Amino acid sequence: MRSFATLDDQKILKISRSLMLLNHTAQPPSPKNDPGPRSNCTSMGAIRQLTVRALAEIKEVWLAKHILTQKVQRIRGTAREDGWFTPDDGSTSFRLGKDCFLTREEAHEHANTRRRKKIDALSRQIQRIEALTRVRK
User: Fold this and answer.
1) Predicted pLDDT of residue 115
2) Which of 34, 94, 123, 125 has CA 20 to 30 A from 56's CA?
3) Rounded distance between C-alpha atoms, residue 124 and residue 120, angstroms
4) What integer pLDDT is reported at residue 66 of this predicted model?
5) How far apart are CA 73 and CA 125, in angstroms?
6) Residue 48 phi/psi, 5° resolution?
7) How far is CA 10 from CA 24, 98, 104, 124, 135, in A?
8) Could you tell me the mean pLDDT of each successive run of 10 residues in the chain, 137 residues long?
């Protein structure tokens, strides 16, 4: 007999797999890393289509949008059919799979990727500024 927690975890994994963003730098799909059916492109990125039933099951997500200034936060709200998540407090909606994620691990993975990109960008900027100061001497 399975516990309710196991069933909830399985539902979360199933839904999170259906929300994964396509990684344009990833290898072509193979049996090992096949992302599943192709996703539909939207103005904010490629997200997978969810059934209305799966959307109704999403009640809380992990927010990683403001990760460069805040920590990953859990928020409660309602998922919409267009791929957005509206918090219960009525604040700004967030994009599922881009700004907010179904599991804490996915949110932290996205946060670490964004931090690395920001650090790389700042390192390049520092190098450009240092190159300018060397030229003027």
Assistant:
1) 92
2) 34
3) 6
4) 85
5) 30
6) -80, 145
7) 27, 21, 15, 42, 59
8) 52 60 44 44 44 70 84 87 83 85 88 94 94 72
